[in-house]
Design a protein that fits this description.
39% of the residues lie in helices and 16% in strands. The protein is of the alpha/beta class. Helix 1 packs parallel to helix 2.
Amino acid sequence: AHLADALLVNTSLKKLNLARNNIGPEGAAHLADALRVNTSLKELNLRLNNIRDEGAAHLADALRVNTSLKELDLPGNNIGEMLNLDEGAAHLAGGIILGPKVRHILRMRCGSTPRWGG
């Protein structure tokens, strides 16, 4: 939550690598709150953080309004795996389609099966 609070006011950070921090859905929700207002971050690596579908839904909502993020790296987050569904991936796709800027979700995987790449 502290890092997300810093992102709320940061105006200079362009890349952030949070890979392998096990932030989970709750951490993804805090990051999503920050992404809704942050206008400087261009690349965010969230690989291997156990975000799951719930966290993906929070991120998707933030992508609908975020105007700066261009790359989001999400492999290894159990998105769509918990119930063998692609709910989280569908949320993220909706965020990209409805968002104000073109973005790439890099190497996103549900388990080991690539869904789309950037």
